[in-house]
Specification:
Elements (H helix, E strand, L loop, with lengths): L2 H11 L7 H4 L8 E4 L3 E5 L6 E6 L4 E2 L12 E6 L2 E6 L7 E5 L5 E9 L7 E9 L6 E9 L5 E10 L8 E5 L5 E4 L14 E6 L7 E6 L2 E9 L6 E7 L5 E7 L10 E3 L3 E9 L1 H9 L2 H9 L9 H4 L3 E6 L6 H11 L3 E6 L20 H13 L2 E8 L2 E3 L3 H5 L17 E2 L7 E4 L5 H17 L4 E5 L21 H17 L6 E5 L11 E3 L14 E3 L2 H6 L4 E3 L32 H13 L5 E3 L5 H4 L1 H15 L2 H4 L3 E3 L8 E8 L7 E8 L1 E7 L5 E7 L5 E6 L2 H4 L4 E8 L2 E9 L4 E6 L4 E7 L5
Parallel strand pairs: 21-22, 21-32, 22-23, 23-27, 27-28, 28-29, 29-31
Antiparallel strand pairs: 1-2, 2-3, 3-4, 5-6, 5-11, 7-8, 8-9, 9-10, 10-19, 10-20, 11-18, 12-13, 12-15, 13-30, 14-17, 15-16, 16-20, 17-18, 24-26, 25-26, 33-36, 34-35, 36-37, 37-42, 38-41, 39-40, 39-42
Helix pairs in contact: 9-10, 12-14
The structure holds zinc ion.
């Protein structure tokens, strides 16, 4: 009997209830409890519940290495009065295992009497169901019946032992916009190969609770949480020092499940197998019930964003008084002949990262500021103003006058948690608690003055997503970890919109692409596009994981790409000004600039140019020309690059090139290095009308002749269809695509940008 046949017959038998360990005992081969449908097979060790097999069917490739060693399926850290202890499935003995009835095959594992010596026992129940999304996925749920007085400080579940080692391993995690590591096992080795943990807390910096650990274009392990409510959790991979890599989800029950007789994980964890790459994993997550629910809340999808926002062709991210911000933006607007919007830093009265929230009045005075904004709007230039939505400077007068400390985040010790960002002033700033009405009122009041008083177009709420666990019992929220941070942001944005409604739609932007907030924020900034510039580890490549899930639901804007040395805030100490402020960067760094812009284009973000000065039109004509062509091409392609659904782009057979890059920022002196990147990149998008386009961006000085293998099946193309090219000059018909020859040849000029469009409904 073939392996496949044997799996199917066992799955067919999987109907009876209950299953005892003894029933499964006997030979080594059958010492597991199996659960299978036509897509996935799971095997558990009946002695302790350790997961032994997670195999996609019909291939039967087991994502887990063969092993008989236990790794507890769950681990619970508990506290009873002053005593803390850990309980685990491994110590808890034989679970009772039953098959679940219902449409989908499932198992119930029950550990009836789980107890530390001398303690009252718990009952732990695990439910496993197959058939999630009609894919090779399984749902894992856990509940704990316990004495009310017992606190659960942490629950680790499910725990997956020994992800099988494969060739060409890749780890993709939706951290920030998304990040990908090749040879990820090496990251878990730790010092002296002792092993270390890679931990991603959600919803920040992990913006979606999923990850994919796979062989490139081969078998892969997929884990996710089906949680549409944004509960805090961590996904973790760790090595035990012998190169064996395990996975778990770590939960911190809200209020440590105190006073509850039963704690139930508020969402299911999803474990599965797939074949492909991170695009496959992103599709699995995109199609999950949780992601569908979150996407439906997206303000772009619900057409709740101000119209000017979706019509924005380019963002200018400038700092300081209006002549250095709005005037360059207006020049650029004329140059592009496309609406330009401004992300405006350092407009405020206080010193950046020191005097927050003493933003008002604008440093140039309210009246000139308001007049400049009005004049800019006449020219189709809109502006959102920077205001940090969590920091209060401890050295400000308002900190004392308004009694802010009372409403700041407190640690378990009851003390505030100062943070220092400003390297020139070393000013301590304190995170404020968004769970307090005081802070929400304070911030919403400022936003109202900005939008209704100064008549700016919106607010950039910096550091959205940077959460805290607050332990101040006077704030009225639960103590410690909790969803109140996410709820607080929803309340805050709701309050800002209520206050601003008299004037129209306020645009609210945020930092980091957290999925829980896409119903609250209109747009979110993606700095990881500029990974080298912001000093990210080169071990992690940026990927558009977030875009592959939520494109069309929310607007992602930006990068950190600029052509000059960063400015210095006039409110900072003059004697510490860095040399070369706003002077041109070395031309050798242009490839880095082009790469950042190319990613922004191919990955469907609104493009941005930081620290733009009109002189750059003459001094950096080629770089500005690149941005110009990019903007013009993109504006003809919004059904793909703003609203489209991500598809796997064809692999580009193009050279790799070593380029000069620099880490540089307002606090970071230039640090140059070299990196190797392909000279062109691609994204692929399906529009709502079924047309598909491949966005291509070259940063190469030479022309490229691309041979593009077209994925006819995934793209849904008929035997023949019309092909167009969209670029800065317009949309031109190139000819007819025929599936008998599924490789399309395309010539890209030096630094060329275009979309190759396939129109299934145009067959002639
Ligand atoms: Zn608080």
């Amino acid at each position: 009997m073939s392996r496949f046949a044997s799996l199917v017959s066992l799955a067919a038998l999987a109907l009876s209830v209950p299953v005892s360990a003894a029933e499964q005992g006997g030979t080594a081969k059958t010492e597991t409890v199996r659960l299978a449908d036509s897509k996935l097979q799971i095997e558990l060790d009946p002695a302790n519940g350790t997961l032994r097999q997670l195999a996609q069917l019909p291939e039967g490739y087991n994502q887990l290495a063969d092993s008989t060693e236990p790794l507890a399926l769950w681990q619970i850290a508990a506290r009873d009065g002053e005593t803390s202890y850990t309980l685990s499935a491994e110590q808890a003995g034989l679970p009772k295992i039953e098959r679940l009835t219902g449409d989908q095959p499932g198992l119930r594992l029950v550990w009836d009497k789980v107890a530390a010596p001398g303690k009252e026992p718990l009952r732990v129940e695990v439910l496993i169901r197959l058939g999630q999304q009609d894919e090779s996925l399984s749902r894992w749920e856990l509940s704990v019946a316990k004495p009310k007085s017992l606190r659960l400080t942490q629950v680790r579940f499910p725990r997956v032992p020994r992800v099988r080692e494969r060739d060409d391993e890749v780890l993709a995690v939706p951290r920030a916009l998304g990040a990908l590591a090749r040879n990820p096992r090496s990251l878990t080795r730790g010092k002296n190969n002792q092993g270390t943990r890679l931990v991603w807390p959600y919803p920040f910096p992990l913006n979606m609770p999923c990850l994919a650990f796979y062989q490139d274009h081969g078998p892969g392990f997929y884990a996710a949480c089906d949680d549409s409510q944004g509960y805090r959790k961590e996904l973790a991979l760790w090595s035990d020092g012998q190169g064996r890599v395990h996975f778990e989800v770590v939960h911190e029950p809200e209020q440590e499940a105190a006073e509850l007789a039963e704690f139930r994980l508020p969402f299911a964890v999803v474990l599965g197998a797939f074949h492909g790459d991170w695009t496959t994993a992103a599709r699995l997550y995109r199609e999950s019930p949780a992601a569908q629910a979150i996407a439906a809340r997206g303000r772009l999808r619900r057409q709740l964003t101000p119209a000017w926002l979706s019509e924005t062709g380019l963002w200018i991210w400038n700092r300081g008084r209006s002549p250095g911000v709005l005037e360059p933006a207006t020049v650029m607007r004329k140059h592009l002949q496309t609406p330009v919007s401004v992300l405006w830093h350092w407009w405020h009265n206080c010193a950046y990262d020191a005097g927050f929230p003493e933003y008002l009045p604008p440093r140039e005075g309210a009246e000139p500021f308001q007049a400049a904004l009005a004049a800019a709007r006449q020219q189709d230039v809109h502006a959102i103003l920077y205001m940090n939505q969590r920091l209060w400077g401890m050295q400000t007068q308002s900190w004392i006058d308004e009694g802010a400390e009372r409403y700041a985040v407190k640690g378990p010790d009851g003390k505030v948690r100062p943070e220092v960002y400003n390297v020139f002033m070393k000013s301590p700033c304190v995170p404020m608690c968004i769970g307090t009405r005081f802070w929400r009122d304070k911030y919403a009041g400022l936003a109202e003055e900005v939008f209704c008083g100064l008549k700016a177009d919106g607010v950039y709420m910096d550091q959205t997503g940077v959460m805290a666990s607050c332990y101040d019992p006077s704030h009225g929220h639960i103590l410690g970890t909790g969803r109140y941070w996410t709820d607080g942001l929803a309340a805050l944005t709701g309050e800002i919109r209520d206050r601003c409604a008299t004037r129209g739609r306020v645009a609210l932007g945020g930092e980091f692409c957290g999925e829980p907030w896409i119903g609250n924020l209109d747009l979110t900034l993606a700095l990881s596009v500029s990974a080298d510039r912001i000093g990210s580890s080169p071990v992690w490549e940026p990927i558009p994981f977030f875009q592959a899930v939520y494109h069309g639901s929310t607007i992602v804007f930006g990068n950190y790409a600029g052509l000059v040395h960063p400015p210095y805030d006039e409110k900072w100490p003059a004697d510490k000004t860095l040399p070369g402020t706003l002077t041109l960067l070395d031309r050798k760094l242009s490839q880095q600039f082009l790469l950042e812009q190319a990613r922004t284009f191919a990955w469907g973000m609104q493009p941005m140019l930081a620290n733009f000065l009109p002189s750059q039109l003459q001094e950096r004509p080629e770089e500005i020309d690149y941005v110009t062509r990019l903007v013009r091409t993109r504006m003809r392609s919004l059904k793909y690059l703003l609203y489209g659904t991500w598809l796997r782009p064809p692999a580009l057979d193009v050279p790799q090139q070593e380029i000069d890059v620099a880490q540089i920022g307002v606090y970071t002196p230039l640090r140059a290095s070299k990196r190797t990147y392909p000279v062109a990149l691609a994204g692929a998008w399906r529009a709502a009308d079924g047309n598909v386009a491949i966005a291509l961006a070259s940063i190469h000085d030479e022309p490229l002749r691309l041979q593009l293998p077209i994925d006819v099946q995934t793209y849904g193309l008929p035997a023949r269809c019309a092909v167009y090219r969209i670029d800065e000059s317009g949309r031109q018909r190139l000819g007819q695509f025929d599936t008998r020859d599924p490789v399309w040849q395309l010539d890209l000029p030096p630094r060329g940008l275009c979309l190759l469009e396939f129109c299934p409904n145009e067959k002639e």
